[in-house]
Write a structure and sequence with these properties.
alpha+beta, 4 strands
Length: 87
């Protein structure tokens, strides 16, 4: 069986920080109650574009996180039409 290899990635999406973020800022879970997904550390420019698209974004000091229910955030960016943020 072959596994599909992603053809696109995003230099604007850094790492899944769900566990770290929920330890650091547990109240952020209230923004998406009972919805399975992940919080991704993203660039400020991507966070602003995501927020303008109606996505759930959390900002604290110099960090921005985006909540998505999609396994690969790049797939979600493509679906949202934010292809400028894909490499």
């Amino acid at each position: 069986m072959q596994v599909a290899v992603p053809t696109k990635n995003s230099p604007h999406v850094f790492v899944n920080q769900t566990l770290t973020l929920l330890d650091y800022w547990p109240e952020v879970a209230d923004r998406v109650p009972n919805i399975p997904g992940a919080w991704w550390l993203v660039t400020r420019s991507l966070a602003q574009a995501l927020e303008a698209s109606g996505e759930v974004v959390a900002t604290a000091a110099c960090s921005d996180w985006w909540f998505t229910t999609v396994d690969r955030p790049e797939d979600a960016l493509e679906a949202l039409g934010l292809t400028d943020f894909l490499a």
